Amino acid sequence: MSKAARDVAINKFREDPDCKVFLMSMKAGGVALNLTVASHVFMMEPCWNPAVERQAHDTIHRIGQYKPIRVVKFIIENTVEERILKLLFEATVNAHGGIGNWTAEDREFLFTT
């Protein structure tokens, strides 16, 4: 889809009350996009990069959003997608847990020159 066609589709979703659904891939829709007219995100594809996934659902979670937001991930059991989700969860827990356990000396050693 060209940038012009993308802009037309986005404007239609934002301005046309009859346009209730906007479909996009995470990579196409997750960057520099404000869709605060929406309040639900349905994730149909997992992503190896949690930051990309967060950025995709943050398109509706921005300043100006006054409605409750709901993000739903569709994952089928015993699939590659389920394994990706588990790996992402473990990586996120490890990253947050590891950083959270650092001492002031650890942080100073790592982040000073």
TrEMBL record:
Gene Ontology biological process: nucleotide-excision repair
GO cellular component: nucleus
A Pfam family per the record: Helicase_C
GO molecular function annotations of the record: ATP binding; ATP-dependent activity, acting on DNA; hydrolase activity
Record's keyword terms, sorted: ATP-binding, Hydrolase, Nucleotide-binding
Keyword Zinc: no
Protein name: Helicase C-terminal domain-containing protein
